[in-house]
């Protein structure tokens, strides 16, 4: 997990928990047999500590306050299969 985890989003259909941290690290945990296992964790972007999940498509969304171009951007990620 990144430093200062402060936002959680759970995709019930995919049994996947997203943890966004103040440090810009987003971690993804898969729930199987009532246990959580880290599927991945990486620094997404500075300020990437908000996450939303679309329960129909299982896509995750991350609003970034400032991209490389200096403007806000909304990142969309397609889920990978565990």
What attributes does this structure have?
3-stranded antiparallel beta sheet; 0% helix; mainly beta; globular; 4-stranded antiparallel beta sheet
Low-confidence runs of at least 5 consecutive residues: none
User: How many structural domains?
Assistant: 1
- Termini distance? 19 Å
Largest beta sheet: what is the strand line-up?
1-2-3-4
Portion of residues within helices: under 10%
Taking all Cα atoms into account, the compactness measure Rg is: 12 Å
Structural shape: globular
Instruction: State which percent range the strand residues make up.
Output: over 45%
Helical segment count: 0
Biggest sheet, in brief?
A: 4 strands, antiparallel
- Structural class computed from helices and strand pairing: mainly beta
Mean pLDDT: 87
User: What is the chain-wise order of helices and strands?
Assistant: EEEEEEE
Based on DSSP secondary structure assignment, what is the total number of beta strands? 7
């Amino acid at each position: 997990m990144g430093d200062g985890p402060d936002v959680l989003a759970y995709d019930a259909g995919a049994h996947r928990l997203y943890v966004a941290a103040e440090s810009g690290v987003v971690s993804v945990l898969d729930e199987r047999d009532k246990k959580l296992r880290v599927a991945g964790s990486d620094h997404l972007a500075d300020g990437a500590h908000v996450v939303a999940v679309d329960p129909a498509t299982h896509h995750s969304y991350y609003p970034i306050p400032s991209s490389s171009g200096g403007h806000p951007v909304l990142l969309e990620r397609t889920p990978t299969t565990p």
